[in-house]
Each structure stands twice: as structure tokens, then as C-alpha cells.
Write a structure and sequence with these properties.
NAD(P)-bd_dom, seven-stranded parallel beta sheet, dTDP-glucose 4,6-dehydratase activity, alpha/beta, dTDP-glucose 4,6-dehydratase, 16% strand, dTDP_Gluc_deHydtase, NAD(P)-bd_dom_sf, binds nicotinamide-adenine-dinucleotide, two-stranded parallel ribbon, binds thymidine-5'-diphospho-beta-D-xylose
Length: 339
């Protein structure tokens, strides 16, 4: 099978390409990536001499380029490319509209011209809004959309476009809405790698607000196996929620776990200004994908976080440059937040 992966030089896309080749080595993967600040081509350096792999630098909003790629035998699109950082969406919402909404539309429209092309859209649990802290409630596939940041609004809009192309034009689509991923190759601007790399640099962990925010942590390789299950066995037109093997951990608890693994103390925590519109709690029910496709997450948070800390400790060359860029962004952001 010949597959187009968009955003394959980002965190989840690069993990997915490694995962897919390990399981389907005779498939061909074409990776279309604009190489924004979030990309790191080093994540896929090991594929340089793999004849089954092709990299194309380009923008998913470039319709002529997408048309050309799709006309060359692509049978399946797995769409990861996006602006993905909530803090950046507060800083520059229009960029999120362009890439996440217009970019997804461009891919859909081009796919429609190429007949029976299968389209899998990778989305987020953030489209469902926020849950209160004091309930066991979880997001299901039937939860109403209630996006609250420019990032989640742009992803929600892209989800609606994907479904509209299924209902109106019979494009064979599937969607997945997953929780917060963590693991190797994640940009050091995101919370877990930011904590680890700050501590390695002798700096403190910046905890937004009271730190009592809850995320549903999903090990990235478990996310990849869930996408594989949807591609191989998912029902066309359906959405699947994907979550991790976790209880409700607050950001503060996650920070303390990392402090303990890295032999640090709570004096290395620093409470900083909160994110505007900060969603309080996410929790995802993965009951449907378990029941229908026999998928479950495999790694506990305790195991996954130890593996992740070890990976960042062993791969400083991978993250160093991106760390400098990320902290320059945060310095600029902090100046606006403390006002
Ligand atoms: P990322 O920010 O690490 O990577 C995004 C990649 O997309 C980068 O390589 C970037 O260069 C590329 N890209 C951006 N704009 C592009 C454009 N216009 N054209 C082509 N390529 C472009 O993102 P990620 O964390 O790997 O997330 C991948 C997908 O998963 C996104 O759609 C995101 O919304 C979704 N998601 C992520 C998480 C998470 O925890 N990271 C959770 C739920 C859903
Ligand atoms: O320095 C920090 N301090 C802090 O307390 C950072 C960067 C974050 N946080 C908090 C904010 C969130 O409550 O940690 C939590 C996680 O933050 P992020 O890593 O920025 O992730 P989040 O905003 O939850 O979104 C992520 O998961 C859903 C991804 O970035 C999205 O792409 C995905 O859709």
C-alpha cells in the first residue's frame, strides 16, 4: 500500500512512521511536511536510505502540490499535520485557522478528486471542551463539541469538515480523538519534555496556575497502535476516542513524579501565571475502540514516564536546538501573561 502521511516530521507522525514500517515494511510512505519550528527531521534520519520512504517538503495548503502527490498512486492519507500547541494558538490564532482548517480542507478536496482514497484524520480530545475536577465523567464519541481555545476550535472545525466530506461526497473517512500524548521525539515546548529538559538544565519546572489541571496521558506508541487498528478494522465514517492507561493525575502530581525519577526536590517547582482559558480536566473513555476493534493501551503511566525521562537524558542532541527556540517563545509569552 502507498500511504501519504502529513506532518511526519512532528512528534506523533515520526513515531507513527517508525511504528508502521516496523509492522508493514513493504508499504511505501510519502511524508509531506512543511518543516515548521515543530518539525525535527532528525527523528527520521534512520530512514534516509530506505527505498520505501520518500520525504516531500511542502505545505498541506498547497493544492497543486497535494494534487500532484495524490495522483501518484496514494491509497491512504493519514493526516497528522497541524499547528498543535495551545499556548501558540493564543499568541497567533490565524495560523491555526490556516493550517488546521484550510490545510485539512485542501487535503479533503484533493482526496475527493482522486476517487476512493481513504482518509484518516488525527484529532484531539480538546474538541470536547473541559470536564470538572470532581466527577468521574469522561469524553465519549457522543460528547458534544465545546472547544475553548483557538487550537481546539480549529481542530473541531477540521473534524466537521472531515465528516462533511463523508456525508456529502462519500469520501471514506475515519477520525480519532486522542488525549495528551507523551514519549520520545516530542518537542520540548510541551509540558512533559519541558519539565525533563528544564531539570537537566538546572532550571525549575514552571507549573501554570494552581497545577490542579488534569490530562489523560497516552503513551505515543499506544496511540500508533490505535491508529493502526482503525485503519485496518475501523468502520468508515466513524470516530474513535483514544486514551491512556491512567487515573486522574494533576499536573502537579506529574511534575512530582518527574522530580522523583530525576532525584530532584519540590524546591525545583515554580508556580507561574496561568494559561488564559486553561481547560481544567480531560478524561477519555476508550471503551468503543476496545469493544469494536479490540484495542487497549499497553503501557502504564509509571512505566511510560520512566522510559520518556531516560530517552530525553540520552538524546540531548535531538532536543537542544528546539529547546532554545521554545524557551525564547516562552520568554516572550511570559512578558504578556504577567502584565
Ligand atoms: P507536532 O507539532 O509535533 O508536529 C506537527 C507537524 O506538522 C510538524 O512536523 C510540522 O512541520 C507539520 N506541519 C505544520 N504545519 C504544516 C503545514 N501547513 N503543512 C505541512 N506540514 C505542516 O504535532 P504532534 O504533537 O505530532 O500532533 C500531531 C497531530 O496529532 C496533530 O493533528 C494534533 O492536533 C494531534 N494531537 C496531538 C496530541 C498531542 O498530545 N501531541 C494529542 C491529540 C491530538
Ligand atoms: O510549562 C508548562 N506548564 C504547565 O503547567 C506547560 C507547557 C504546560 N503546563 C500545563 C498546561 C496543561 O494543563 O500542562 C498541561 C499540558 O500542557 P501542554 O503540554 O501544552 O498540552 P495541552 O495544552 O494539554 O495540549 C496537548 O494535548 C492535546 C497537545 O499540545 C495538543 O496538541 C493535544 O491536542
Amino acid at each position: 500500500m502507498k500511504i501519504l502521511v502529513t506532518g511526519g516530521c512532528g512528534f506523533i507522525g515520526s513515531n507513527f512512521i517508525h511504528y508502521w514500517f516496523s509492522r508493514h515494511p513493504s508499504d511505501i510512505i510519502v511524508n509531506l511536511d512543511k518543516l515548521t519550528y515543530a518539525a525535527n527531521p532528525e527523528s527520521l534520519r534512520d530512514l534516509d536510505n530506505n527505498p520505501q520512504y520518500q520525504f516531500i517538503k511542502g505545505d498541506i495548503c498547497d493544492e497543486a502540490l497535494v494534487d500532484k502527490i495524490l495522483s501518484d498512486g496514494i491509497e491512504l492519507i493519514i493526516h497528522f499535520a497541524a499547528e498543535s500547541h495551545v499556548d501558540r494558538s493564543i499568541d497567533d490564532p490565524l495560523l491555526f485557522v490556516k493550517t488546521n482548517v484550510l490545510g485539512t480542507y485542501t487535503l479533503l478536496n484533493s482526496a475527493k478528486k482522486h476517487g476512493d482514497l481513504r482518509f484518516h484524520h488525527v484529532s484531539t480530545d480538546e474538541v470536547f471542551g473541559a470536564l470538572p475536577l470532581d466527577t468521574d465523567e469522561k469524553f465519549t464519541e457522543d460528547t458534544h463539541y465545546d472547544p475553548r481555545s483557538p487550537y481546539s476550535a480549529s481542530k473541531a472545525s477540521s473534524d466537521h469538515f472531515v465528516r462533511s466530506f463523508f456525508h456529502t461526497f462519500n469520501l471514506p473517512v475515519t477520525l480519532s480523538n486522542c488525549s495528551n500524548n507523551y514519549g520520545a521525539f516530542q518537542s520540548p515546548e510541551k509540558f512533559i519534555p519541558r519539565m525533563i529538559t528544564n531539570l537537566m538544565d538546572g532550571k525549575k519546572i514552571p507549573v501554570y496556575g494552581d497545577g490542579l489541571y488534569v490530562r489523560d496521558w497516552l503513551f505515543v506508541e499506544d496511540h500508533c497502535s490505535a491508529i493502526e487498528a482503525i485503519i485496518l478494522k475501523g468502520k468508515i465514517g466513524d470516530s474513535y476516542n483514544i486514551g491512556g492507561l491512567v487515573k486522574d493525575y494533576s499536573n502537579l502530581e506529574v511534575a512530582k513524579t518527574i522530580l522523583s525519577i530525576m532525584g530532584k526536590t519540590e524546591s525545583d517547582l515554580e508556580f507561574v501565571a496561568d494559561r488564559p482559558g486553561h481547560d481544567r480536566r480531560y478524561a477519555v473513555s476508550w471503551e468503543k475502540i476496545h469493544r469494536e476493534l479490540n484495542w487497549s493501551p499497553s503501557l502504564s503511566f509509571e512505566e511510560g514516564i520512566k522510559k520518556t525521562v531516560a530517552w530525553y537524558q540520552e538524546n540531548e542532541a535531538w532536543w537542544r536546538e528546539a529547546k532554545t527556540e521554545a524557551e525564547a517563545f516562552y520568554q516572550r509569552l511570559n512578558a504578556t501573561r504577567s502584565k
